[in-house]
Amino acid sequence: MPTAAEYIIKRLEEQGVEALFGIPAVYCSEVFMAAKAGGFRVVVTVSDLEAGYAADAYARIKGLGAVSVAYGVGTHSLVNAIAGAFVERSPVVVINGGPAESDVALQSKDGILFSHSMGASHSDLQTFRQFTAFCERVTNVANIPAMVDRALVSAITRKRPSYLEIPQHLLKATVPAPAGALNLAIQPGAATAAATEILAKIHGAKFPLMIVGEEIQRYQLGAKLLAVIDKLGISWMTTLVAKSVLPESHPKFLDVFNGERASAKVRKALAGADFIISLGAVFGSGHASVVRPKLPQMIRVWNGELLRDQAPPIKVSISHLIDALGQQALTDRGDAAEDARELADANQQEWSDEMLAELFAGDVGEAAWDGDPDALTQAPAGSGRPAPVAAGLTYDELFQVIAEPAFLDAAVRIIVDTLLGVYPAANLKMPSQNSFLVGGLWASIGHSVGAAVGAAIPGDKRPVVICGDGGFQVTAQALSTMARHKHPAIVIVVDNGLYGYEQFLLNNTYYSDPAAPPISYAVIPHWDYVSFATALGVPLALNAHTVPALRAALMQAKANNGGPSLIRAVVQSKSLPAELH
Fold first, then answer.
1. pTM metric for this prediction
2. Which one, out of 90, 205, 281, 361, has a CA that is 20 to 30 A from the CA of 565?
3. In order of start, what are the domains of the chain with their CATH numbers?
């Protein structure tokens, strides 16, 4: 019979998982040994946070990810990554070795802390309850197989993280081998009736519109939804997090719905739509000023529910709903398909600047400032220092070169961080599906660098990170993991010497006034990024100050298959992407 740790690894393997991310420690050592013995790729990262970001990215690509770190000291560092996975529907399983019941009892009795304890009985369990759809501790050996199965089923079917804690000594205990496949069936809810209602509203609308969200990618529904779109001839857009889930070359694709900074085509379509069906989209603060006025004309399906304005939610499986839409669109639509295409084309009509300004007032994107609105006009005084980086590339030049077909092809996956460049990144035309990854809602800086570690494991596409210098400094040591495993990732560090997003949100006159100094605390320490990368074992590290130098650096990096490449792209501190002017 297998041990509990071996049971976990076997179940993960059955679901196509091939890697375990984390930092080994005594509490979870049995899981790492079982993974290694089972032929898993054990990816030991430099930090717990990196391990979480890596598992998150891997889960978005493969459908399930697994991470394990030290109890207490490791898991609490991991929390931020798992919170982002929870918000953005990424099915990561946290496997935690915990203290024995006897350790907890002795701590309570004597007041002597067990290893990595905060003094509470079950601090990890209580912490992760807020950020997971399944969170349990199992102390009875007989219950371990069922609890492992429940944790995996929850992550897979709900597309959110699971947390499973098993006391360290019980991970060595033997349990029965897995019996049969996991039951991953999802109840359809009112899928058939919902499809009928949605199609009726599309048919009755003059200007119908579809928003495609991240759950379409998480449930691997892209091909089925594309067939529905083709039958209906409806125009569609994606959220930023769902970018590239469907082919961006499709004739009815409008663009990315990226809040106020969305393209004119998207803004006109949203302004004129008299019915919007949103499938699997998670809306953030940057969408608020647009979505709220449109709620009376919108049906939203996400998180297992169908939502209408001012009506109670209805349980609906998005997978079953799209199946029903496909079936009913064949029988109900009939000869009206061409009419639908004509109506969708009408979304391109002109709308007044006043109408668009009113509709899109107030936000700056998915990761918009969500605090005190007065802070935008009561910005801190500048330090009196000049721009940290006076000469170099502009943001527009940077992204124009990245977008060139010689570099941006179907073999790469863009992983963009939270930086001012997220707006031009949203406008990159991705040449293949599922080729764009972003923490666009949780917006935790540094996510992209750790995510590249997980994104490199499947080997389907080459990770290309676009990260600000501030974000890079949060997780820069992940380069060491990439070098150790010879990941062919390309990391582009946008070096403008600033927390540029912070500067823009709090005092954007800095970018228009040549004499304006930056906010003092928004200026970040200068690093020698090339020397740093070389010291960590990165085989190719280059500086790029000009368009020709950047173009050449990207081509050199693309030719380097012996490990990661780092490109320091020097961008003027006062440069703003065109999307933010």
1. 0.91
2. 90
3. 4-172 (3.40.50.970), 191-359 (3.40.50.1220), 373-580 (3.40.50.970)
